[in-house]
Amino acid sequence: MLRTFEPMLRRNEQMLRMIDPMPRRFGSMLGKIGPMLRTFEQILRTFEQILRRIDPMLRTFGQMSRRFGQLLRRNEQMLRTFDQMSRRFDQLLRRDEQMLRTFCSSVLSNGKCLLTVKMPL
After folding, report:
1. N or C: which end of the chain has fewer CB within 10 A?
2. What are the backbone angles phi and psi of residue 63, rounded to the nearest 5°?
3. Cβ-based neighbours of 107, under 8 Å, separated by 6 or more
4. Range 75-99 average pLDDT
5. What letter would DSSP give residue 110?
6. For position 21, what pLDDT does the model report?
7. pLDDT grade, residue 118 (50/70/90)?
8. First-to-final CA distance of the chain
9. What value does the mean pLDDT take over residues 39-52?
10. What are the pLDDT digits (tens) for 3-19?
11. What one-character-per-residue DSSP string does 36-104 give?
């Protein structure tokens, strides 16, 4: 009977020899994972600090772009007003020209006016 138990005992002993270093290996792995986790935590903190610094810059950039949009809208309004003024001025010049022709034709019987008016444009 000892002969039957002897191989079983050897197998059990071999298994125990294989299992025995496992907790040490696991402990060693945990020892290496700890510093890795701390390093990862530091990376996350640094990233958080970077984001905190970028956030105000992005807000400022957003405000600047909104103000620039407002300036563009005001400029557009000014250009429209200037366009309306130039059209109105053109109408007034045409009316004045027509009035001058009417005046010249009524003053001279032959319909020719020798009076010339120079207006800067």
Report:
1. C
2. -65, -40
3. 113
4. 92
5. T
6. 79
7. low
8. 128
9. 95
10. 777 888 888 888 888 87
11. HHHHHHHHHHHHHHHHHHHHHHHHHHHHHHHHHHHHHHHHHHHHHHHHHHHHHHHHHHHHHHHHHHHHH
Tokens of 8: 């079983």
And the tokens for 53? 């610094």
Residues in the chain, total: 121
The 3 state secondary structure assigned to 1-30 is CHHHHHHHHHHHHHHHHHHCHHHHHHHHHH
Map out the domains of the chain as residue ranges. 2-100
Residue 101: both structure tokens together = 């022709």
DSSP structure class, residue 119: -
Q: What is the pLDDT of residue 53?
A: 93
The residue type at 44: L
Whole-angstrom Cα distance, residue 23 to residue 36? 20
Mean pLDDT of the chain: 84
- Structure-token match 């200037």, residue found: 82
Q: Are 101 and 113 within 8 A, CB to CB?
A: yes
Under the phi-then-psi rule, with left for phi > 0, alpha for psi from -120 to 50, and beta for the rest, what region is 15?
alpha
